[in-house]
Amino acid sequence: MGSLWEEGIRITRFPQLEGDTDTDVLIIGGGMAGVLTAFMLKSSGIDYVLCEAEVLGNGVTKNTTAKLTSQHGLLYDKLINEFGKKKAWLYLKANEDAPMSAPRMCAQLEQRGTHLGLSLPRLKIY
What we know:
The chain is mainly alpha-helical. The protein has one domain. The chain is built from 4 helices and 2 strands. It has helices at 32-43, 75-83, 85-111, 116-119; strands at residues 25-28, 48-51. Helix 2 (75-83) packs across helix 3 (85-111). The relative contact order is 0.18.
């Protein structure tokens, strides 16, 4: 069974990184988290390089529902036990803020007259 996210898409290919490069942030993995991190860093003017071994969004991201949620069941108990209440709360806050950030990011892309598929080549991806 194929993924809903694969239907009717054109896969954009990116160049292989040749030689060495300097960057402030190295993002390893071009799934939803990696691409969104690259977008946020670019929007903030922070130098980054995103490296993906195969195809963007073709790993775990391809087979998810792509939902943004803060309801992670017993994970919070584990986070509290391993890292303390403050770090568990920070994780919760980040997950609560994500659904609120998504519409803003989409609006930014729309203002540029693009959609995510067309704007990806403007990101530094190897």
